[in-house]
Amino acid sequence: MGKSDDSIQRRKNKKSRKKQDDKVSNRIAGIIAAKKRRLSGKRRMCEGMCYSLPTPEDPFNERHGKVDPVKKKKKKQNQSKKGKNPIKKTGLPQNSDKLKEEFHMHAPSKFLILCLKNIQDDLQQDGAFSGREEKPFFIHTWGIEFWKYFTSGKDIIGTNQAHATTEQIAWVAATTADAISRKEKEGLSISNPYLLFLVPSQEKAVKVRKICKPLKALGIHTVSLHPGASIDHQIQGLKNCEPEFLISTPERLQELLSHGAIKTSDVSFLVIDGPLSETGYVDAVESIAKSISGKPQILAFNDCSNSSSNFLMKKSVGESICRIPLDDPVNDHNMA
């Protein structure tokens, strides 16, 4: 007896339902098995990837997100012996503030070095050093010695020569500019000339101003006063500016002081270039020095004449005067 179409179709439907039931049961069984493995802590590698991500320390996730046990670091034993201070990289004892202060005092600032570089670069462009050996100004021995005594507040006599050289003028200008910069950082304003540079002639005034001129880009203005220009023109010019550096011959400065065109009462640093033994020169310098209130720091270039030494001794009552040879400085200078 042949099977009807309905019976055949029923058999097919029954088989298909059985397959679907087997699939569902297998899926459910897989879920249950996975849950048991998670509860027992025995997951497969592929399942571990689902719960943790690779890290730079474990790029292939071989640790399955587990962190390595932290190793205890051994404390470094202090090798310094009792009774001795530990030494820093600077070579100074940790608790010695005085030595630290002295160490920093004998290290010129970056601004001072920048001033020297600007001056030297400008002079080289003008051909001022043609035909002579060029060395960086900041390694000039006299300049370093001068800077150390200037920062200590001492009056200074440059011996062996009567006039300052280019390198010495550059160091004076750069050191004074650095002092002004430090004052301004402390909140002090400089309205009157801070540096008064007295020169014996118009030619020397022009030379000193040329050396100081590159500092204008750094905020230091210089004015030169000498008989080569009319006094009315100089009076008008002084009304329109407040220079930090004032370069002048003593005679012309006395005329301007008598007209009230400029004030030198707040000058902090007085530089005297030229021998004070010349007739009338020392009297004019002393007259100008009396117009300065307080006690300015003094640097004098001279040929060891008695008049210049006596003048500085009057201004430096009770204090020592540092003597720095102009051509061959030594490490240990005598104090007068």
TrEMBL record:
GO terms for molecular function: ATP binding; helicase activity; hydrolase activity; mRNA binding. This is DEAD/DEAH-box helicase domain-containing protein. Keywords: ATP-binding, Helicase, Hydrolase, Nucleotide-binding. It comes from Solanum lycopersicum. Residues 1-29, 52-94 are annotated as: Disordered. InterPro entries: DEAD/DEAH_box_helicase_dom, P-loop_NTPase. Residues 71-87 have a biased composition (Basic residues). One of its GO terms (cellular component) is cytoplasmic stress granule. It holds the Pfam family DEAD. GO terms for biological process: negative regulation of translation; P-body assembly; stress granule assembly. Residues 60-70 have a biased composition (Basic and acidic residues). Residues 191-301 form the DEAD/DEAH-box helicase domain. The keyword Hydrolase applies.
